[in-house]
Amino acid sequence: MAETKNIYISRSIAASNDDSKVKTGKATVELRNGDIVEIGAKVYGVYTLAVVTSATSATARYGIVYNADVVTEGNYRGLSDDPRDVVFAAGTVVNFYIPQKEDEIAVTVVAGTAAGAVYLVPTTAGNGYTYASAKTTEKLVYTITDTKFVSVGNARIATVEAICTAA
Question: Where do the structural domains in the chain lie, given as residue ranges?
Fold first, then answer.
Protein backbone atom coordinates (compact mmCIF):
# COMPACT_ATOMS: atom_id res chain seq x y z
CA MET A 1 0.00 0.00 0.00
CA ALA A 2 2.68 2.47 0.97
CA GLU A 3 4.56 2.51 -2.32
CA THR A 4 5.10 6.25 -2.13
CA LYS A 5 8.85 6.14 -1.37
CA ASN A 6 8.18 9.28 0.66
CA ILE A 7 10.91 10.99 2.65
CA TYR A 8 9.42 12.34 5.87
CA ILE A 9 11.26 14.99 7.88
CA SER A 10 10.00 16.10 11.27
CA ARG A 11 11.05 19.74 11.61
CA SER A 12 9.41 20.40 14.98
CA ILE A 13 7.10 17.83 16.55
CA ALA A 14 5.41 18.44 19.90
CA ALA A 15 5.20 14.68 20.53
CA SER A 16 8.99 14.48 20.70
CA ASN A 17 8.76 16.46 23.95
CA ASP A 18 5.79 14.49 25.29
CA ASP A 19 6.23 10.72 25.58
CA SER A 20 2.48 10.30 26.14
CA LYS A 21 1.94 11.25 22.48
CA VAL A 22 4.29 8.55 21.11
CA LYS A 23 2.58 5.15 20.79
CA THR A 24 3.22 1.72 19.32
CA GLY A 25 1.01 0.05 16.78
CA LYS A 26 0.88 -2.40 13.92
CA ALA A 27 -1.02 -2.66 10.68
CA THR A 28 -2.00 -5.40 8.26
CA VAL A 29 -0.43 -3.34 5.46
CA GLU A 30 3.11 -2.24 4.70
CA LEU A 31 4.05 1.12 6.22
CA ARG A 32 6.74 3.77 5.74
CA ASN A 33 7.83 6.72 7.83
CA GLY A 34 5.43 9.63 7.45
CA ASP A 35 2.44 7.46 6.57
CA ILE A 36 -0.84 8.72 7.99
CA VAL A 37 -2.78 5.95 9.71
CA GLU A 38 -6.12 5.64 11.47
CA ILE A 39 -5.71 4.58 15.08
CA GLY A 40 -7.88 1.67 16.15
CA ALA A 41 -8.31 -0.40 19.28
CA LYS A 42 -5.50 -1.06 21.73
CA VAL A 43 -4.75 -4.78 22.21
CA TYR A 44 -2.09 -5.85 24.71
CA GLY A 45 -0.56 -2.35 24.67
CA VAL A 46 -0.30 -2.12 20.87
CA TYR A 47 -2.76 -0.10 18.77
CA THR A 48 -4.27 -1.45 15.58
CA LEU A 49 -3.35 0.85 12.68
CA ALA A 50 -5.30 1.01 9.44
CA VAL A 51 -5.25 2.75 6.08
CA VAL A 52 -7.13 6.05 6.06
CA THR A 53 -10.53 5.30 4.56
CA SER A 54 -12.18 8.69 4.92
CA ALA A 55 -10.34 11.93 5.61
CA THR A 56 -13.65 13.45 6.75
CA SER A 57 -14.63 10.81 9.31
CA ALA A 58 -15.87 12.49 12.48
CA THR A 59 -14.64 9.63 14.68
CA ALA A 60 -11.26 8.90 13.10
CA ARG A 61 -8.09 9.44 15.10
CA TYR A 62 -4.92 9.88 13.10
CA GLY A 63 -1.31 9.01 13.77
CA ILE A 64 1.92 9.53 11.81
CA VAL A 65 4.35 6.61 11.53
CA TYR A 66 7.79 7.64 12.71
CA ASN A 67 10.11 4.76 13.46
CA ALA A 68 13.86 4.14 13.38
CA ASP A 69 15.31 4.09 9.87
CA VAL A 70 16.13 0.39 9.76
CA VAL A 71 16.14 -1.52 6.49
CA THR A 72 15.54 -5.26 6.28
CA GLU A 73 16.93 -7.12 3.27
CA GLY A 74 16.73 -10.87 3.52
CA ASN A 75 18.12 -11.76 6.94
CA TYR A 76 20.09 -8.51 7.24
CA ARG A 77 18.83 -5.54 9.28
CA GLY A 78 20.75 -2.31 9.26
CA LEU A 79 20.64 1.44 8.84
CA SER A 80 20.03 2.88 5.40
CA ASP A 81 21.64 5.93 3.87
CA ASP A 82 18.51 6.39 1.73
CA PRO A 83 15.35 6.97 3.79
CA ARG A 84 13.21 5.95 0.79
CA ASP A 85 14.37 2.34 1.36
CA VAL A 86 12.79 2.11 4.81
CA VAL A 87 9.73 -0.15 4.76
CA PHE A 88 7.92 -1.78 7.66
CA ALA A 89 6.36 -5.06 6.58
CA ALA A 90 2.73 -5.77 7.44
CA GLY A 91 2.44 -6.88 11.05
CA THR A 92 5.62 -5.08 12.16
CA VAL A 93 5.24 -3.11 15.39
CA VAL A 94 6.12 0.54 14.71
CA ASN A 95 6.18 3.79 16.62
CA PHE A 96 3.73 6.51 15.67
CA TYR A 97 2.84 9.85 17.15
CA ILE A 98 -0.40 11.77 17.42
CA PRO A 99 -0.08 15.02 15.45
CA GLN A 100 -0.70 18.30 17.23
CA LYS A 101 -1.22 21.88 16.07
CA GLU A 102 2.03 23.67 15.24
CA ASP A 103 3.90 20.46 14.30
CA GLU A 104 6.21 21.26 11.37
CA ILE A 105 7.01 18.62 8.76
CA ALA A 106 8.44 18.19 5.28
CA VAL A 107 7.43 15.47 2.81
CA THR A 108 8.62 14.59 -0.68
CA VAL A 109 5.57 12.80 -2.08
CA VAL A 110 2.18 14.48 -2.25
CA ALA A 111 -0.70 13.33 -4.46
CA GLY A 112 -2.58 15.73 -6.68
CA THR A 113 -1.64 19.08 -8.19
CA ALA A 114 0.35 21.72 -6.33
CA ALA A 115 -1.05 24.62 -8.39
CA GLY A 116 -3.41 26.61 -6.16
CA ALA A 117 -2.95 24.27 -3.21
CA VAL A 118 -2.76 25.75 0.28
CA TYR A 119 -3.14 22.60 2.40
CA LEU A 120 -1.98 19.01 2.77
CA VAL A 121 -4.67 16.61 3.96
CA PRO A 122 -4.81 12.79 4.27
CA THR A 123 -5.55 10.86 1.10
CA THR A 124 -8.92 9.14 1.28
CA ALA A 125 -7.73 5.66 0.39
CA GLY A 126 -4.13 5.39 1.43
CA ASN A 127 -1.50 6.46 3.90
CA GLY A 128 -0.22 9.63 2.26
CA TYR A 129 -0.85 13.30 1.74
CA THR A 130 -2.76 15.12 -0.97
CA TYR A 131 -2.85 18.75 -2.03
CA ALA A 132 -6.02 20.74 -1.30
CA SER A 133 -7.06 24.29 -2.08
CA ALA A 134 -9.71 24.24 0.67
CA LYS A 135 -9.94 22.41 3.98
CA THR A 136 -11.66 19.10 3.29
CA THR A 137 -11.38 17.95 6.90
CA GLU A 138 -11.01 19.46 10.33
CA LYS A 139 -9.32 16.34 11.72
CA LEU A 140 -5.82 16.67 10.20
CA VAL A 141 -4.77 19.65 8.11
CA TYR A 142 -1.29 20.94 7.30
CA THR A 143 -0.91 24.42 5.84
CA ILE A 144 1.83 24.57 3.22
CA THR A 145 4.56 27.03 4.23
CA ASP A 146 7.30 26.50 1.62
CA THR A 147 8.88 24.23 -0.95
CA LYS A 148 12.55 23.32 -0.68
CA PHE A 149 14.91 20.44 -1.43
CA VAL A 150 16.57 17.63 0.51
CA SER A 151 19.74 15.91 -0.69
CA VAL A 152 19.96 12.13 -0.79
CA GLY A 153 23.33 11.09 -2.18
CA ASN A 154 23.73 13.06 -5.40
CA ALA A 155 19.98 13.58 -5.85
CA ARG A 156 18.13 16.76 -4.88
CA ILE A 157 14.52 15.91 -4.09
CA ALA A 158 11.78 18.55 -3.80
CA THR A 159 10.04 18.80 -0.43
CA VAL A 160 6.80 20.40 0.65
CA GLU A 161 7.07 22.02 4.07
CA ALA A 162 3.94 22.42 6.15
CA ILE A 163 2.67 23.25 9.61
CA CYS A 164 -0.23 21.44 11.30
CA THR A 165 -3.19 23.79 11.70
CA ALA A 166 -5.83 21.22 12.65
CA ALA A 167 -5.33 17.97 14.52
Answer: 8-166
